[in-house]
Design a protein that fits this description.
51% of the residues lie in helices and 4% in strands. It is built from 5 helices and 2 strands; from the N terminus they run ααβαααβ. It folds into 2 domains: 29 residues; 76 residues, DNA polymerase, domain 1 (Orthogonal Bundle), CATH 1.10.150. The chain has a two-stranded parallel ribbon with strand order 1-2. The radius of gyration is 18 Å and the shape is elongated. It starts with a helix and ends with a strand.
Length: 107
């Protein structure tokens, strides 16, 4: 197989991967609550933990889909976070994890 043919096959595989990834991300769970736009999330804007949906919360270090769901559930059951420190009341967010995300969040 020639190098050119291998390069074309690799480019095709990468293109398919990105298309699948983007369509999966778009089809993911949506929060009924207003959330930051993707442009805001990608621009380095701080994540508003009282408004962010699943896709914004998982951009925070140490926050996966399950913990993001717990954050949204906590908001639903207890109302808005009044202080960033209140995030530590969510199961799965300890002091170390909170310290990593503190500079990236806002109320």
């Amino acid at each position: 197989m020639t190098a050119r043919k291998m390069l074309l096959i690799a480019a095709g595989i990468i293109s398919v991967f990105f298309l699948v990834f983007l369509s999966t991300a778009e089809a993911g769970e949506k929060s009924a609550e207003p959330s930051l736009s993707k442009a805001e999330a990608l621009s380095g804007a701080k994540v508003d933990i009282n408004k962010a949906g699943l896709d914004q919360l998982v951009t925070l270090p140490g926050i996966g889909p399950k913990t993001a769901e717990k954050i949204m559930q906590y908001r639903q059951e207890n109302g808005k976070f009044k202080d960033p420190e209140d995030l530590k009341k969510v199961r799965g967010i300890g002091e170390k994890n909170f310290e990593k995300i503190r500079p990236l969040i806002k109320i």
